[in-house]
Amino acid sequence: MKRRRLEEYFIDNYTEIFSRMKDCDHGNGNSLNPYHLEGSVWNHTQMVLDALGAETNSTLLLAALLHDVGKPFVRVVEGDRVWFSGHTGRGTMETIDIVKNVKANLDDFSDANTVYVLNLISLHHLFFNYLLSEITEGAVRKLYEKLKRFDYAFVYLLHKLCLADRRGRLTTTGSDCGRIVRLFSLVNPLLYSAYQNPLKDREYTNEVIFNVGIPYSGKSYGSAGYRENYTVISRDNLITEKFKQCTYNEAWELVDHDSLNTELLDNLRKAVRNRENVVIDMTNLSRKSRNTKRCMFPPSYKKTANVYYTGLSIVRSRVGKRTDKYVSWSVVERMMNSYSTPLYDEFDEINFIVQ
Q1: Which residue, among 329, 295, 334, has the nearest Cα to 312 in the 3D structure?
Q2: Which candidate, 85, 120, 84, places its Cα nearest to that of 99?
Q3: What is the pLDDT of residues 143-180, one digit of tens each?
Q4: How many whole angstroms separate alpha carbon 287 and alpha carbon 333?
Q5: For residues 231 and 213, what is the distance between their CA atoms, to the nearest angstrom?
Q6: Does 300 lie in the same domain as 266?
Q7: Whole-angstrom Cα distance, residue 58 to residue 6?
Q8: pTM of the full structure
Q9: Are 101 and 13 in contact (CB under 8 A)?
Q10: Given the DSSP bridges, would you call strands 81-83 and 76-78 parallel, antiparallel or unpaired?
Q11: Is the domain of 248 the same as that of 113?
């Protein structure tokens, strides 16, 4: 059975993560979580896979198994409440290597779409944000704008995962499954039409590219290819330029960060005034951090996101090798937790780069 082979491979090869999922309770002691009365993250994962029934799509099965891997890493208890803020971003980054290894070692999962799996994990809560008691035309339009340029096949799988995630739990808050089905039925014609009749790019005079990724994921290396025709603006470069005789970490301690942020924004404004093509070489992980800079660019600029999905095995090796810059692993972890997938209400083009 395909599902069983996947679970056995995961349990045998990722014993620590499996144990953390088994030990990670959605509640706290006698305080049950009304949204997850089934107990542990692993119990919930099993129920989500059960909800998929005889599903054989490799991409969907893999995403369902891994969709809540991030929860044990971010679990916080506040009084009688348990929070998992940032679990989708953390789970996305933690599973890059797992997905690649499953594809390489399980023949019947070799056809899984890596980018689809990672984006399913990072977006599996998206539909839930629009489950109002009355689903309005405005809510449907907002959801459409976020998803309009994703492959239709991906959005269909996202809907199936969201539905299985809702069915795969015990709760006292009632079922949202009917509203998920209705929401998809309303947004589906818009998405299918966009798939059948791809939206044409407008005419742009310039482009701004946002690098999106955790430290050591290869963003600066990727930016080097744009330097001939683009102005690369980097907060880290501003820091090191001010203290050329210091290491990056020494400069970080010495610099006035408020003043530096002002200078960064001034440089972006100057680039817009001069009609320059721009690469913003920063982590840009959260939607809020991107919007602060994105809103500075007029509609004449094509807005592109290059998202770096680099496995943590590679990232860890680079942490030890870099002598010019050191970012502690605890900082890298916090940044993983803040990752929010770029969507099409933010960007005109999104490129997912798997390393």
Answers
A1: 329
A2: 120
A3: 999 999 999 999 999 999 999 999 999 988 777 898 89
A4: 18
A5: 19
A6: yes
A7: 10
A8: 0.95
A9: yes
A10: antiparallel
A11: no
